[in-house]
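User: Reviewer 2 asked us to show a designed sequence for the structure in our supplementary figure. I'm pasting the structure tokens here. Could you produce the per-position amino acids so we can include them in the response letter?
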């Protein structure tokens, strides 16, 4: 197989690393890639992953026969549609299906008409109607920008003035979704699908807030663990029976089936699990902890997906645990600098270090994003994995580097 991965984040580094271990790989390319993928694949730094024609040209130029789309932006730009039309097998849905992620208004309506448990919500395009709901409410609300926001378009609040100001700013450019605030703990559930059937992978947890103890603003995710030892069997069964199965039935019924990964962001509450959001790709940082536990050859697995042979494929998973800690730049999730020199990247393989948007100049690695690295430890138990990750994370040094110190601990609300 000659595989192209689209993206430059730590998730795409993990996907590239997983492919690099496949016995099926004859060529491995990443567009644009980062300083981490550069050592295990060929980076195509000048190919814009969100430009369908540039991606098609790269496929032709490098005789690519499988494309793995890492993140949501190329999906929103219709790259998958272009590849499917050109007959190039790809992992990732068409733009129409990607609305499950790219439009919260679309995904809420999908859940409501198909009876999938989710927080009660309303979509607004007009400020006075929204203002009335905020002023008449008797409980905490969650306000969401409908379009893509890299995990940062959500406000949880019970302060009227804060909500009105936030809602007003969203309504200037987008639809505003307002929903009831759910209380519980969050899990990220991943199903891979070949368009006909699907298989579930072990559950992960993403630590969404910037601060220890689940405090501070929302981020794209400051750390992750896999599996989640506190997820009860009953909740896992309800997730499968009341959420995953009905979702795939509805996707088929509505002509939205696809080849790729469906990500269910779930809140497990005292009244059972509810869907917070769908995404149509692996999570970041969840992929960084999940993929190292998959034992199946990733080339074989992807071919089973693109050839609709997933039902014959068994995805063997390690019984180990893994913990990933994100090392972020000073200022993230607000404004931060890039191009900061990095030292101390571990060279042994006791922990895995996945880069996000890093570059290299004169042999020095430079930061390129807000969530700069994910350091992943694996171990027999969660505690062993935490110890391995935290033993390595402090050695990743750059000016202003910071990380949460409680990844792996159980926190309600994350
Ligand atoms: P979303 O982008 O919809 O997943 O929202 C981002 C984060 O906001 C979630 O991971 C939760 O931590 C929080 N959140 C979203 N919706 C709700 C809700 N209805 N109740 C409580 N927390 C929520
Ligand atoms: N970890 C959250 C996301 O990938 O959307």
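Assistant: Here is a per-position design you can include in the supplement:
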């Amino acid at each position: 197989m000659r595989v192209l991965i689209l993206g430059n984040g730590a998730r795409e580094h993990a996907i590239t690393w997983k492919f690099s271990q496949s016995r099926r790989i004859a060529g491995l390319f990443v567009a644009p890639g980062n300083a981490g993928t550069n050592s295990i694949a060929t980076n195509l730094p000048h190919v814009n992953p969100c430009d369908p024609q540039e991606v098609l040209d790269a496929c032709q130029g490098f005789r690519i026969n499988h494309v793995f789309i890492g993140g949501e932006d190329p999906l929103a730009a219709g790259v998958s549609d272009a590849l499917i039309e050109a007959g190039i097998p790809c992992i990732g849905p068409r733009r129409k299906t990607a609305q499950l992620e790219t439009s919260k208004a679309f995904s809420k309506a999908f859940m409501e008409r198909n009876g999938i448990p989710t927080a009660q919500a309303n979509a607004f395009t007009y400020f006075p109607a929204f203002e009335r709901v905020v002023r008449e409410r008797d409980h905490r609300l969650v306000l969401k920008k409908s379009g893509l926001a890299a995990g940062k378009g959500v406000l949880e609040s019970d302060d009227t003035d804060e909500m009105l100001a936030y809602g007003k700013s969203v309504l200037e450019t987008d639809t505003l979704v307002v929903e009831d605030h759910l209380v519980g703990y969050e899990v990220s559930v991943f199903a891979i699908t070949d368009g006909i059937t699907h298989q579930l992978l072990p559950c992960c947890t993403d630590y969404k807030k910037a601060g220890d103890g689940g405090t501070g603003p929302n981020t794209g995710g400051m750390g992750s663990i896999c599996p989640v030892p506190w997820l009860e069997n009953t909740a896992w069964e309800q997730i499968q029976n009341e959420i995953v199965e009905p979702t795939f039935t509805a996707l088929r019924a509505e002509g939205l089936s696809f080849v790729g990964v469906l990500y269910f962001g779930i809140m497990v509450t005292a009244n059972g699990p509810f869907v917070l959001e769908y995404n149509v790709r692996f999570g970041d940082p969840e992929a960084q902890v999940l993929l190292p536990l998959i034992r199946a050859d990733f080339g074989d697995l992807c071919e089973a997906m693109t050839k609709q042979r997933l039902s014959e494929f068994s995805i063997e998973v390690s019984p180990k645990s893994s913990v990933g800690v994100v090392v972020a730049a000073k200022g993230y999730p607000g404004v931060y600098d890039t191009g900061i020199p990095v030292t101390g990247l571990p060279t042994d393989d006791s922990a895995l270090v996945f880069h996000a948007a890093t570059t290299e100049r004169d042999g020095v690695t430079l930061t390129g994003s807000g969530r700069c690295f994910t350091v992943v430890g694996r171990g027999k138990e969660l505690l062993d994995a935490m110890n391995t990750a935290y033993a390595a994370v402090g050695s990743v040094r750059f000016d202003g580097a910071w990380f949460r110190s409680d990844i792996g601990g159980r926190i309600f609300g994350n």
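For the response letter, you might also mention the following. The chain has a mean pLDDT of 95. The longest strand covers residues 259-269.
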